[in-house]
Fold this sequence. Notes:
This protein has helices at residues 25-38, 46-67, 81-94, 99-106. By secondary structure, the protein is mostly helical.
Amino acid sequence: xxxxxxxxxxxxxxxxxxxxxxxxxxxxxxxxxxxxxxxxxxxxxxxxxxxxxxxxxxxxxxxxxxxxxxxxxxxxxxxxxxxxxxxxxxxxxxxxxxxxxxxxxxxxxxxxx
Length: 113
């Protein structure tokens, strides 16, 4: 039987290795703070970010529909205006909305679905 040659794989530097997806919200937040502090936002995978953001958007929307617009999406000064607008624009594009659609929803009375 011929010998099987193992293929060498290049190891990525420790700073570039993907970490396992966080198991808890606190762990995700800690990993995110660390990644941002290091200037390495790609330490959080796109898949993990999409899963967390999708879950957060769904529960936030459900709470607003049930309780009204008194549900704060984050604490005061937790994010910058730029971070807010960049994220909102990304979600608007992902949902294939336009600014007219957003304006209608922005000014809709509470309790109307």
